[in-house]
Amino acid sequence: MSSVTPAADGDPAARPLRKDAERNRARILAAAREVFAAQGLDAGFDEVARVAGVGVGTVYRRFPERRDLVEALFQEEVDAVVARAEEAAADPDPWRGLVGFLHWGAEAQAADRGLAQVLAAAGRGHERVASGRDRLAPAVDALVRHAQRAGVLRPDVSGLDIGIAVAMVGRVGGPDRARLRERYVTLVLDGLCLRRDAPTPLPQVAVGEDDLACVVEPVRRPR
Amino acid sequence: MSSVTPAADGDPAARPLRKDAERNRARILAAAREVFAAQGLDAGFDEVARVAGVGVGTVYRRFPERRDLVEALFQEEVDAVVARAEEAAADPDPWRGLVGFLHWGAEAQAADRGLAQVLAAAGRGHERVASGRDRLAPAVDALVRHAQRAGVLRPDVSGLDIGIAVAMVGRVGGPDRARLRERYVTLVLDGLCLRRDAPTPLPQVAVGEDDLACVVEPVRRPR
DNA sequence: GTGGAAACGGAAGACCTGCTCCACTTAGCT
DNA sequence: AGCTAAGTGGAGCAGGTCTTCCGTTTCCAC
User: Fold this and answer.
1) Neighbour-count burial for A15-43, b at 16+ CB within 10 Å, e otherwise
2) Is residue A202 part of a domain?
3) Each residue of B4-39: pLDDT tens digit?
4) What range(s) does the HTH tetR-type domain occupy (chains A, B) (predicted)?
């Protein structure tokens, strides 16, 4: 979660960075991970620089475009999602695998705004992060097919549906609304299963009359 | 949808506006409805003024705070949602009423970013729009109880759950993704019903390999 | 028609944000 | 140690948005 590719930055022919530059690069990546998770992918570079303890100029020199930073960061985060999907697909109980993946995915996206945005961009086929989708889609598709062949998942849904469902639920609520998200994952899963006689019990949520800060986050306005 | 309270603006003791002022006020409200629907509640006042064909100063004089404008606008929009919920609750077939309300609500929120934000704020208990929730919550609760008493809706969900579900699905996709939203409303409804033997058929969506612009919209960063 | 209060509009100032640039510092080689 | 190229940081500029302010226009009561 915090290891960083040491030097070779895509182009293996590039001369290695100086030691201090490499150290700062790592600091910037760590800071960006933190800031992007909290504020989303268009957080100010100033903030990233402040958290990293370097000047803005340094951030811009190392990552001239925002995409460069995002790309460097989320390669590994996407890997984590792919790994989790494969793990879920390997579960001997296919339904349990699917359930686990949905819960985990919703929580991961809720905890990290940047991740949510990257996955959305990957789904949308954005050039630079498209490689993310190319790895992600097969993994989720495999999970879906696995559950469908076992006859527990309805046959008319695709991996894309699962991705969108995770994204939808992941947008619900603030940081401490984990219970609420579990509730909606359970609800969606009751819609995803092939058939059922009774509803799956939902996690109870105690919301006070004036403590309904649990709604879906507002959309952002386009630039 | 386009009628506007002529003069009495909250305070009945206020002297009536001059005729031109009243005309401009109506123009501003119409423009704001359009602009807020497209761009969300924090669209620039400049844009509202431009669309209304008045100067920015006029907008600021009539509505010194953004909240004043939002409040004046969405009183009636919330009324429309309440009316739709009551209509749905009055349906002799309670399940059909619920299905119709979810489809309508998701589409309404997708078509109007401003409405989505206001409903979110209302759910969150925001002071000025709190009155909206006070009217909305009972209407949706009645719809839910109606369906539950008829034994078609699972008993462990509340009106709030319905509101959040509508909001979640309403965030999916862009303007022409109505089909996709229908798909997820159907899926959620299959999770909401008391029991079912087979999945409800989902509306088919044809998405090309690189036309996956169907993901949930990104979250916005806080000010 | 006239006087004066109300309303108008948009230029201008305050502010905020993304990015560049260059005088200075530092690592690493000899 | 001394030299040089690589690296640094933050002041400052450009471009954008929000809000105010005041000279001009419009309405309406008389």
Assistant:
1) eeeeeeeeebbbbbbbbbbbbbbbbbbbb
2) no
3) 333 344 454 567 889 999 999 999 999 999 999 999
4) 22-81
